[in-house]
Amino acid sequence: FLQILKDWIGSFSSIFSVIHIPTNTKVALKITIKSDDQNQKKFNNQELSILKSVNHPFICKYFSDFETDHLFIIVMELIEGTNFLQYVNQNHGLKIKLFSFLTSEF
Description:
Mean pLDDT: 87
Largest sheet: 5 strands, antiparallel
Strand order of the largest sheet: 1-2-3-5-4
Low-confidence stretches: none
Structural class: alpha+beta
Helix content: 25-40%
Radius of gyration: 15 Å
């Protein structure tokens, strides 16, 4: 992978925009530092299970995952632009009709 930039830093993980060199495709890497905390391990496994099973137009697509000695990494679809929280904050909330549409199951 060739790193483009760090998009987001959270309490437990960071998101990087990268290029997958063999396919020249932009993807997102969600990188979490491994921990001995059982709750964190459970959360990582649940997140991975959900991402692998969900097919929804408003949720990033899962491509792959791998681990190093110290990191847990999920490779997923890169969606550029404003994220959901930024959109909600910029628009001072969501209208109920739009919220219903965005959270509906397809």
